[in-house]
Amino acid sequence: MEFKKVMIEDLDLKDKKVLIRVDFNAPLNEKGEITDDARIRATLTTIKKAVNDGGKVILMSHLGRPKGKVVPAMSLKPVAGRLSEILNIDVKMAPDCIGPEVEKMVGSMQSGEVLLLENLRFHKEETDNNPEFAKKLANLADVYVNNAFGTSHRAHASVVGITEYFDVNAAGFLMQKEIKYLSNVLVNPGRPFIAIIGGAKISGKIDVIENLLDKVDTLLIGGGMMFTFLKAMGKEIGNSLLEEDKIDLAKETLDKAGDKLLLPVDCVIADEFKEDAKIKLVSIDNIEPGWIGVDIGPDTVRKYYKCIIEAKSIIWNGPMGVFEMDPFAKGTIEMAKAVAESTENGSVSIIGGGDSGAAIRKSGLEDSMTHISTGGGASLEMLEGKVLPGIASLTDKND
Fold this sequence. Notes:
35% of the residues lie in helices and 15% in strands. The chain has two domains: 8-174, Phosphoglycerate kinase, N-terminal domain (Rossmann fold, 3-Layer(aba) Sandwich); 181-383, 3-Layer(aba) Sandwich (Rossmann fold). The chain is elongated and about 70 Å long. α12 (330-344) links the parallel β13 (313-317) and β14 (348-351). A six-stranded parallel beta sheet has the order 3-4-2-1-5-6. It is an alpha/beta fold and 399 residues long. The relative contact order is 0.13. The model has no long low-confidence stretch (mean pLDDT 93). It starts with 16 loop residues before the first strand and ends in a 7-residue tail after the last helix. The chain contains 15 helices and 15 strands.
């Protein structure tokens, strides 16, 4: 599917102030150090393009959820430091994202320099999509580029409101890549086309399941959500995660899906929800009262492996168990190995962002996947068939 939005490569950036919305929402530890710079690295191609074309590059992002207040622990300063190291140039850090001091720093920029604005969400007006705030951001630049796929499902000032103040709103390379892969696999997948859907709750994924049922050949279910499906089938699930109010919905989905939807045949159960808990491997017919389901079992992995290895297109959204705890991560890691093997044999594998991406990185197999999305919520909404406001607000290419 052709990407029909104006791209950064369609613009003349020389000596222009280029305002790029990026997603630098990187995880920080207690010391304020970046623990995973995947999102920073994902946008480098676009930043380097703007720098090499002689633009005055102004980057803006959010980090965390400061809820309109200045929270020093959520400053983007560590990102400026990491970006300086990666680009091997001095990335200057602004004290805010708007205001006289920021305007002065932008006004003194030379072509090829990079300035990172402070956390957009230190201002409540960002998430409110406040037009005055959006205008102040827009006034900093001549050109606007959105490369933040991960926030493009949010109608925020730096994503949507700002586009009202530019004649042309372009997409960065990461945005193009994300849309290309996610759209292509939904519109024109190689067959067999399978989806692996995990995560904690049916409520968070039911729209994805509904949208994919008509498109995929097989849908493999794992994660905490599997227990609501099992309960809907009348099975004992012990103290496993259950959405009581979604049991009827699970029944309807099972009836509608028929043979397309596969559920686990065995699972790992624990007596407590902690790493050193006692664990047992049981069939889904033998989950004991009081015990908690924490992972899919090896028979399920073998069953799912056959589908994965035969697939030509694979979408994966959501882990198979409580992958954050090592004893309960095996199912997810074994599935990652299967997807990696299938990809090496020529299938196209698209991994949703958020927990899915984190799980793949934990397995060490990220380089074996076709594409790992940088956007959890954004990729989820695309898989639900929704139009993302941040993409809709970009300028269409004239045919």
